[in-house]
């Protein structure tokens, strides 16, 4: 008979039975760039609390995103627009506590919420400082064009930035809904220009959401110093990200067609996360044929 799982003691308290202290080296920006240079896919998942963050790290996820998607999956909002900076700070702190307790190594990214970086570069700095002081290693902001100047301002002050192009949920109302972006030649050209501007400004990662797989593949090859992280952008990006609840088959609305339910056939959440990591690493997720925009 197998012995029952017991909680593990750490200097930060007691871990849940299904989360074990990580033995990986801490993830850093140089390590992410090195992974990209040798062709190893980068894995990213959202997490919003201590326990799921610890389990994600134990499952091998390199990057944990405290996304403003929490507004929809945790708060029940219809979009991410209503999420406040204080809410983001709270969840970043919660996730960081979980990572500390697990002696975790994941790279932690916090979303700058709607209206917290739009007014000025100085406002963006103040907002970013809140999330960095809460434990984030990097902040993420949405949009191109005007954001390049803000990215450069933050990077010059020692704040790593992840950019986000394609479908940008904070501007979903102006985009006319959750639609694929960059389909026309004009839109694709503009998106590529913005991507290069963000790289030149110092963005260290770039999320590409719901853009044609061919466009995402082109950008992944073109951007030498800014790995792309896809979500609904095909399999040829430098890495992948999913909303935690989606990949566990939990959704209050319609599940995006580019999502795979990794809980199917998995005995538990940690195993589902491990299956996600393995599928991203070996190239079996995502499937371009599943969502050929």
Your description of this structure?
α2 links the parallel β3 and β4. The chain has eleven helices and ten strands. The radius of gyration is 18 Å and the shape is globular. The termini are far apart. With 293 residues, it is of the alpha/beta class. Residues 1-17 have low confidence and may be disordered.
Q: Strand order of the main beta sheet, please?
A: 3-4-5-6-7-8-9-10
The coarse silhouette is globular
Relative helix content: 25-40%
Looking at how many chains there are and whether they match, the oligomeric state comes to single chain
Q: Topology as H/E string?
A: EEHEHEHHEHEHEHHEHEEHH
Radius of gyration: 18 Å
Terminal CA distance:
51 Å
Mean pLDDT: 91
The description of the largest β-sheet is: 8 strands, parallel, barrel
Total number of strands: 10
Helix count, DSSP H or I runs of 4 or more residues:
11
Structural class: alpha/beta
Beta-strand residue percentage: 5-15%
Low-confidence stretches: 1-17
């Amino acid at each position: 008979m197998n012995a029952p799982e017991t909680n593990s003691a750490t200097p930060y308290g007691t871990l849940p039975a299904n989360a074990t202290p990580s033995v990986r080296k801490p993830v850093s920006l140089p390590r992410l760039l090195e992974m990209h240079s040798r062709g190893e896919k980068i894995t990213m998942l959202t997490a919003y609390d201590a326990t799921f963050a610890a389990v994600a790290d134990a499952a091998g996820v390199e990057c944990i995103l405290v996304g403003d998607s929490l507004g929809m999956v945790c708060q029940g909002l219809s979009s991410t627009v209503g999420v406040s900076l204080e809410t983001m700070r709270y969840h970043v702190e919660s996730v960081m506590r979980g990572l500390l307790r697990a002696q975790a190594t994941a790279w932690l990214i916090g979303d700058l919420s709607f209206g917290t970086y739009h007014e000025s570069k100085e406002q963006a700095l103040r907002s970013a400082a809140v999330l960095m002081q809460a434990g984030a290693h990097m902040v993420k902001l949405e949009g191109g064009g005007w954001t390049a100047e803000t990215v450069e301002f933050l990077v010059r002050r020692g704040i790593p930035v992840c950019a986000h192009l394609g479908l940008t949920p904070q501007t979903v109302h102006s985009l006319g809904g959750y639609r694929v972006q960059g389909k026309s030649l004009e839109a694709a050209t503009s998106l590529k220009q913005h991507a290069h501007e963000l790289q030149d400004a110092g963005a260290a990662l770039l999320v590409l959401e719901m853009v044609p797989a061919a466009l995402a593949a082109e950008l992944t090859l073109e951007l030498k110093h800014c790995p792309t992280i896809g979500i609904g952008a095909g399999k040829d990006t430098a890495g992948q990200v999913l909303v935690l609840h989606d990949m566990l088959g939990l959704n209050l609305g319609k599940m995006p067609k580019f999502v795979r339910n990794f809980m199917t056939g998995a005995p538990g959440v940690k195993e589902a996360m491990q299956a996600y990591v393995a599928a991203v690493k070996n190239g079996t997720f995502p499937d371009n044929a599943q969502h050929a925009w």
